[in-house]
Amino acid sequence: MIVYPNLAVGSKMDLDFGYWDGKSISEKPAVLHACKFPCYREKAGHVNGPAFGTPDDRYYFVESERDLYLNMVDTPDPKYFSHILFTKSFDFINKHIGSPGGVFIHCNQGQSRSPGLALMYLRLYTEFFNEGVTFSEALRIFKDIYPYINMGDGMLYKVRECFDNPDIYLSTQLNSEVDIVRTK
After folding, report:
1. N or C: lower Cβ tally within 10 Å for the chain?
2. Region label for 56, one of left (φ > 0), alpha (ψ between -120 and 50) or beta (otherwise)
3. Is 102 exposed, middle or buried (0-12, 13-18, 19+ CB in 10 A)?
4. Quick one: pLDDT band at residue 183, thresholds 50, 70, 90?
5. Would you identify the CATH topology of the domain 2-183?
6. H-run or E-run covering 168
């Protein structure tokens, strides 16, 4: 479902059945896969996922020309949503949103991670929401265009945090966070 020009949100089933069928290859969207299983695991080649802290540079994500696979689970604890997952996602969206087909963000059910990422992106990088809009107002507005949103507690916390403190999601300190996590 299109939530903003060149930005669509959906589920794994939407991906599998290709809501863009009938379009040429150049019109197919870049895809942000916001689900650890099955997408990230299959692409990264991890059967059970790498151990936390492993020096594998594919721990958080795997990126190809038109796909970004996130090691992201819909957990109730926001500490498992690493900051790098968000900043990498927003960089990917910014890179592809102007291309033919735009960007399609999906998670397994299309209810939590994918609409949460889209809501955060709209808050940070567009004028979709009026200046000073509260999180509650933004969520109501977003539900009008994407009624399937039903974020889990962890994602809900991160989206609310994005509305309250947007500057922390605009940080470019990606590498330092990865280095800190790996040395612990």
Report:
1. C
2. beta
3. buried
4. very low
5. Protein-Tyrosine Phosphatase; Chain A (3.90.190)
6. none
